[in-house]
Amino acid sequence: MTSDVLVLGAGMVGVSAALHLQKRGRSVVLVDRRGAAEETSYGNAGLIQREAIVPYGFPREFKKLWKYAFNMLPEAHHQWSSFFGNAVWLFKYWRNSSPERIAASARAARPLVERCIIEHRALMEEAGIVDMIRETGYLKIFRTRERYDQYLRQQEEIRREFGVGFEELDQAALRKREPHLSAGQFVGGLLMPDPVSVTDPSAVGKAYADLFVRRGGKFITADARTLEATTDGWQVHTVDGPVKAREVVVALGPWSDEVLKRLGVRVPLWVKRGYHVHFRPRGDAVLNGPIFDIESGFVLAPMTRGIRLTTGAEFAHRDAPKTPVQLDRLEPVARSMFPLGDRVEDKPWMGARPCLPDMLPMIGQVPGHRGLWADFGHHHLGFTLGPATGRLLAEMMTGEPPYTDPYPYRVDRFR
């Protein structure tokens, strides 16, 4: 089998890149070891985060760093067994989380984030699933006045610079919006009206992959680690023989560096792991939209399978054994604020968010390797940004004028 482009990885990022290349006349083969959207793209809060221009930085206050190091806060967990593998990357992440560098990353991310809903909606309309979008916004709730006031000041600055709107909600407004929430625990909330959500992010990714196949694309099962250069392009090996193309896109999320390393390309990619589990609501309890408990660091989101509880970050090696201690700590907190019933799954899901130190993705050609392209490292925003970065990459690969300057996302920016 021969095509114009191999796209390695069928998560939201890879499927979106494949669709945008296909729309521009390229024959594309999508390659994954599993089905579409069954890895990182499966386990998120289902948000398309139009408000998330300012990235999640690493804390710089000594008190909070101390608590992170000794797992004293439920929003994060550090595996000491992975410390030596984590240390260099964590230092780079910390260094890039200064106010000046966070601001620079936010300005660079803005053109991508501003297009996230536009590009998702376009693909959803083409796939016939636009009814999956829920105009829910995103509710952030606060337990202490100090944290609320601090966050409010930050949001005012973000609104002034980036135009991200929000609405303040008192306890009465919280009760009106979410009648089954124990609003008395909270001093108030901030409603972010711009984001939208879906009840099954994996189903969205699979619908995009189905659209790709209906339009003539090929989706094959293969190991991306078999990628190798040929005299006129690239190939991966399958049980039925090699699949070849002139160009290849590495969109493997947290596994991207593994493939590139085999080609002599090193990138400072690391992961933040995260967990989720679903609960049945008790009685007739209804959650109307995703809720982020700021102090506790978790999200409750209504999903097809039930109420999904998603954790914050776990700093551990990508392939280290699961340690879902955050879920065990957070479940009683979540139950106290919303009437959760039994768990739906016997075991929690775990995934890995692919992260780069400056919290921006890598999009573009890999220097020194003709026809090798990158589209990975989306931090917490792979589901949100997949269609937007897929379009940008396709424009670059096909010679169209890109909708924004791709320079901030270049592959060699850490050299």
Describe the overall structure.
The chain is an alpha/beta fold. The protein has a domain at 1-57 and 96-130 and 197-269 and 358-415: 3-Layer(bba) Sandwich (FAD/NAD(P)-binding domain). 33% of the residues lie in helices and 25% in strands. The protein contains eleven helices and 21 strands. Strand 14 and strand 15 (298-303) form a beta hairpin. The two termini are 36 Å apart.
Q: Beta-sheet strand percentage?
A: 25-35%
Structural class: alpha/beta
> Unreliable stretches, pLDDT < 50, 5 or more residues?
none
CATH topology of one domain: FAD/NAD(P)-binding domain
Number of beta strands: 21
Number of helices: 11
Percent helix, as a range, is 25-40%
Please state the CA-atom Rg, rounded to the nearest Å.
Answer: 21 Å
Topology, element by element:
Layout: E1 2-8, H1 12-23, E2 28-32, E3 47-48, H2 62-69, E4 76-78, H3 83-95, H4 99-113, H5 116-127, E5 138-142, H6 145-162, E6 167-169, H7 171-177, E7 188-192, E8 196-197, H8 201-214, E9 218-221, E10 228-230, E11 233-238, E12 241-250, H9 256-262, E13 270-281, E14 291-293, E15 298-303, E16 306-310, E17 313-315, H10 325-337, E18 340-343, E19 349-355, E20 362-365, E21 372-376, H11 382-398
Parallel strand pairs: 1-2, 1-12, 2-9, 4-17, 5-14, 12-21
Antiparallel strand pairs: 3-8, 5-7, 6-7, 10-11, 11-12, 13-16, 13-18, 13-19, 14-15, 15-16, 20-21
Helix pairs in contact: 1-8, 1-11, 5-8, 5-11
